Amino acid sequence: MSTPDGSGPAPGGGAALAQLVGTALASAHDADSGDAAEVRAITDAMVRLLIGAPLHSDGKLTVVSLATEAGLRRNKLTHKHTGLKDLFYALVKARTLVPEVLPDSTRARADKQQQDLARVRAERDDLRGQAQLLARIVQVLEIENSKLKDTNAALEQQVAAHAAVPDLTRRRRRS
Fold this sequence. Notes:
By secondary structure, this protein is mainly alpha-helical. Helices cover 75% and strands 0% of the residues.
């Protein structure tokens, strides 16, 4: 929906559509059956939820809140009035997809936040790369350390084997 001058979305466009659909559906059902009253209650509840003025629920845009707001059990929406449930979800989705016109200061702040987010993500990716590089370096150093320990142990064994041989040159000097 748009404003009469065609400049943009009308405030509460989803609520007006819900009310229009509810009126059409309610008139299509027999006045004797309880369906017309249920349809009217559901569409009125849709309008209240979509404009942000709930009377009987928590105001969340869910089927549970819609049923509570309409004063009906949830299964009335999930089994009997599935078209109204689908309409509600479509209106909620359309409501969140239509961006509102933002003032310049808000747009500038949003653009700066997007730039900051991109910068922080780049820093995060760089830090991840550095962390992976450091992990590889530590792994290589651990392998080298293990090899050095093995070499050191072998050298100690060789020194111990040579230490078992008596030094005869020292004995001659003492005599």
